[in-house]
Amino acid sequence: MSELKNDRYLRALLRQPVDVTPVWMMRQAGRYLPEYRATRAEAGDFMSLCKNPELACEVTLQPLRRYELDAAILFSDILTIPDAMGLGLYFETGEGPRFKKLADNKEAIEALPIPDPEQELGYVMDAVRTIRRELKGEVPLIGFSGSPWTLATYMVEGGSSKDFAKTKKMAFAEPQMLHMLLDKLADSVILYLNAQIKAGAQAVQIFDSWGGVLSGPAYEEFSLRYMHKIVDGLIRTYEGKKVPVVLFTKGGGQWLEAIADTGCDALGLDWTTNMHEARQRVGHKVALQGNMDPSMLYAPVPRIEEEVERILGEFGHGEGHVFNLGHGIHQFADPEHAGAFIKAVHAQSAKYHK
Ligand code: CP3
Fold first, then answer.
1. Ligand 1 centre from 8 Cα, in Å?
2. Cross-referenced Pfam families, in alphabetical order (predicted)?
């Protein structure tokens, strides 16, 4: 496999010197791009797109053709694991993900298999291999998974939720049942991410989108403990190269020290966390990724540039910053504004790396 032409993203995650701050966007391949909507229509629906390695590769590369992004992210979804466990994932237009079967009782949880990544999830590994080949060493490829807690919320609730009532009821009334589910998910995620690394992913990120809805002690018990188990089980060096691990708990700003203590390489931050304070708290241990509010892309371009400057200044001089949005780019974001955002990060950050 060819050497990387642009390794800024990997270098920043390892807190090594870079010329400018690397940048990518969560959900950079998605509905805000007309070319994505066209390819999805060609595939039929979202899951058919995920399960077609050639088309998944095509949409992964689309944002890279438009913008000077410093990383590509595998096009897939965090819910592929519960789908591979037999829950039957489908998408209801405008209503988000749904499952045909739930994992909301002991029998159902006991019956869940741990998917073999090269079998039931073979389409994901094929996509990773295809994308890695087609990237031709331009930028690194990020693999990803959901955290056990975040996956469990979808499997217990049957889809998206506002209050996570069923999952929290299980956590507090029948904790051993939820622990059984989380344990199986952690084992599945370890196999899944290690298979992505062997297939060609050069860094991996765990999306804990719903960790922030828990109290501190419940976060430790039901989310962080399992991400820690995953970090301990991951391949950290592959073919002589470090494979950085990024943990992103949305709403996790209060727990940065504990998250950094898992031994991960970097923390994803949402926009509610101050970069300067985060760096003082954990910057000697981990790199930081973030954290512009994705809604800022609705602002006029000069306002976006001002916000990029503010965040660059908040992080300050030196290494260990990967610029990103604090969560996924919105469906109605203007692609021109996304382009202005990425240009601004590169243009305005050189002075922080002298
Ligand atoms: O970042 C990327 O470009 C890679 C692709 C990616 C998708 N989902 C594609 C997707 C990634 C990294 C994800 C992760 C994901 N999926 C998360 C964690 C990140 C986060 O946003 O918190 C979560 C919670 C999911 C579950 C999920 N998948 C939801 C809630 C939805 C519906 C979202 C909506 O706005 O309707 C999805 C579907 C999904 N996953 C889409 C995309 C591009 C939109 C589906 C479509 O094309 O119709």
1. 25
2. URO-D
CB of 209 shorter than 6 A to ligand 1: yes
Alpha carbon distance 227, 230 (integer Å): 5
- Ligand 1 touching residue 97 (CB < 6 A): yes
Q: What is the Cα–Cα distance from 54 to 38, expressed in whole angstroms?
A: 14
Helix axis angle for 225-233 and 148-157, nearest 10°, is 120
- The answer to whether residue 270 sits within a structural domain is yes
* Residues in the annotated binding site for substrate: 27-31, 77, 154, 209, 327
DSSP state of 318: S
Taking the whole predicted model, whether its pTM rises above 0.95 is answered as: yes
| pLDDT of res. 23 | 98
Q: Which residues are within 8 A (CB) of 155 and not within 5 positions of it... i.e. 6 or more apart?
A: 82, 85, 87, 99, 102, 103, 104, 181
Question: What's residue 3's pLDDT?
Answer: 86
Number of domains in the chain: 1
CATH of residue 291: 3.20.20.210
pLDDT of residue 1: 46
Residue in 7, 8, 9, 77 annotated catalytic: 77
Tell me how far apart the alpha carbons of residues 294 and 341 are, in angstroms, rounded to a whole number.
Answer: 10
Q: Is 215 exposed, middle or buried (0-12, 13-18, 19+ CB in 10 A)?
A: exposed
Is 180 contained in some domain? yes
* Domain-located, residue 274: yes
What backbone torsions phi and psi does residue 254 show, to the nearest 5 degrees? -75, -15
- Kindly report the length of the chain: 354
Paired with 292 in beta bridges are 325
Using CA atoms of 122, 123, 129, 133 in order, give the dihedral in degrees to the nearest 10. Answer: 160
| Cis amide bond preceding 105, omega within 30 | no
Which domain range does residue 233 map to?
8-353
Low-confidence ranges of the chain (pLDDT < 50): 1
**Dihedral-angle region of residue 143 (phi above 0 means left; psi in -120 to 50 means alpha; beta otherwise):** beta
Nearest CA to ligand 1 atom 33: 96
Q: Has residue 2 been placed in a domain?
A: no
Q: Name residue 211's beta-bridge partners.
A: none
